[in-house]
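Encode chain A's predicted structure.
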Amino acid sequence: MSWSPDEASLTQIVQLLRESQASADTETQRSVEQRLEALNQYPDFNNYLVFVLTKLKTHNVLDEPTRAIAGLILKNNVKQHYVGFPPEIKTFIKSESLQIVGDPSALIRATVGTLISTIANRGELVHWPELLPALCQLIDSPDTFACEGAFSTLLKICEDCSDQLDSDALNRPLNVLIPKFIQYFHHQNPVIRSHAIACCNQFITSQPPALVLNIVPLIEGLFSASGDDSGEVRKNVCRALVQLVEVGASDLLPHIHPIVEYMLIRTQDSNEVVSLEACEFWLTLADQSICLEALSPYLHRVVPVLLNGMKYSGYDVLLLKCDVDDQDVPDKETDIRPRFHKAKTQGGGDLSDSDDEDDMRKEALTDWNLRKCSAAALDVLSCVFHESLLPVLLPILKQNLLSSDWLVKESAILALGAVSEGCMEGMIPQLPEVVPYLINSLSDGKALVRSITCWTLSRYSHWLIADNQHLQQLMAELLKRILDPNKRVQEAACSAFATLEEDACTELVPYLGDILKVLMSAFRRYQTKNLIMLYDAIGTLADSVGNHLNKPEYIQELMPPLIDKWNTLKDEDKDLFPLLECLSSVATALQSGFLPYCETVFQRCVSLVAQNLHQTQVALANRENMAPPDKEFMIVALDLLSGLAEGLQTHIEKLLVQSNLLTLLYQCMQDDTAEVRQSSFALLGDITKACFQHVYPSIGDFMSVLSKNLNPLMISVCNNATWAIGELCIQLGAGMKDYHSLVLSQLIDNINRPGTPKTLLENTAITIGRLGLVCPTEVAPYLPSFIAMWCTTLRNIRDNDEKDSAFRGVCSLISVNPSGILQHFMFFCDAIASWSVPKDDLKAIFHKILHGFKNEVGDSNWKAFADQFPAVLRDKLAVTYGV
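Encoded structure for chain A:
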């Protein structure tokens, strides 16, 4: 296609592009963008962009930023509208962009490479057969710019179109490309060497046949490039070796010792990008079965390297401004990480896909760096080597902890925390000496030492709680750090204290007065970011000590500041989220003690739910002009209402009667957002327990919605729906006969489904048992289909009321259908034995069933049957039930 621009139009477009990249004024910038957007509607505009990108250097003056902006706009147009481009424009863009892959400007080469890879990523590789051969020809060019531009473009295509490159539709170009890339590991130009290795790296994880066939020359090529002068080359070599270890490439095993030697050197590389890439090797190797054997001879060398990597760099210290008393300095918005409320899960477990945040990756700076990677590596290696790591580690730590260099001391304290999980047994004899040192370090002059000490002590909280003297000392010092003048230390202390609260639970009751005084003092002085941490500490305290918090002096200390903040924040302020979460825990713990505050909190929560539902309806009616509301406001309000219902129980009835909450709740239960439904079902269950008479008139509607939310792929929604059905069973009694058919088959499918999370299994088993309790005749025929998994699931939970009702239900099913348990009676015996102290009448029911079975089969058959039991089970049944 030949195309020539209109000179006046070209001049106008070039001027706009120049204004766009030159203007610092927001209004001018917006005006320019609007004019460019208007021009973008014309069919020829993309041709002008191609012309500016590819020809402006000869048409007028060399103007790299203007050309690059034209290329960027063109790339965005391709990304969004390429399918609708006329064929001649597609051809024009392709041919012209290929002509300048080797442009003298690095900026233009990068821009055109991105444009070409974007076209390729639109499925165009198959319709652009000349592209890959042309790029392969260019990388053989003696022209440095052409070679670099072509390789840079190929790397982007490898990143964006890896599947296409190994497809039959293109005759598997990787079969040619992989060997060609490997040849360029030795190119004289370090940029080309780096690109060549990076191209191969795109395929190591997916292991296409072309890579597997060339694995030996690939490994040989990596070894030959391992001592390269270029940091980029060394980084990509390290990345390749880490990926090869990760996929367990068998051809790598004979080379594992040279690789370990190499990574020891590179982890200490003067280029931190290289050292960080190499440090990932220790993390990756720890997940491999060969780790113990491969690293044992090197521990005495690996550990000191990791410890050295755990020190803050001079740049980190400068960036952190670590010794500033900054508690009065307001937080910038950029300092406050986005946080997301986790909707309430019923049944005593956490069903999120990723429950445990990696402590190492959270600590200190936001960005992943050598310090955090080294600490994470020591953590995972301690879980591989356990106590055998300590003879290497402890002598170095003892020396470093006494160092006059605070950076060395700080990194040693970090190391003590890092090995706490993997080496706990070996560390216990050291703790009487280590813990006093750490408690003393909470008063160190350096803020970063104080903050890391908070974290490390929290990692040993289980041990500390068992030792009352150390617990008192830690409590006193940690509370002082909560009031530290440095915000980083405040944050670390709050986080550590929340961990201590979770582990200590009611052990904290004697200290509640002192704890609340400090927490509420902090409440008055904390800035926004740490206030969120403080809410969490207050909420966790309430969860941990429960109704021990319900004393007038504690309530007077705790509630006025929280309610003042509650009254200050506007409905649309996202700072409400952590306060709502905190109040939910507090309301549950205070129970009747929350009554003076419940009306205002209840009404505002109902109002938040109503507003959000209304905004959602308006947004649906005006899809094009209005964004949907942030439903997190509704979720946290529902969860706080749930906390009120759980804490106030029957006292909530008056508030419920005066509101339209149940009508709103029915709407929420049908919301498109899973978290809204999840929290709705939790609230329904809590209201059912508190005042069922108000749920009863709508029971059919509620059961219909619940039955449609038992999909186990929506784990948390299904869990809360299941739990709510169980609560309805207890309240409705024999009336569940009208609804059991809606839910029973799905519940049975869920309990037998492989891979179902533990909490969902437990709630499902309890609800099936409760269904059996209230309508045994209807459920009993299905007993053989779930009893084995039911017993296996509930044998693992502690004695409680939910377990009690579930077992009574299954005993009722056995009385209706005794033959239904014959094939799985051993499972039932084991489940009975899991009880520590069943109530007397339940114990009598167990006794009757066991003896009835024994009498039915006869003594000799029973003996043969019981001889199959593990000795512990056989002894417990004999002692407790006389069988």
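Residues 595-621 form the longest helix (27 residues).
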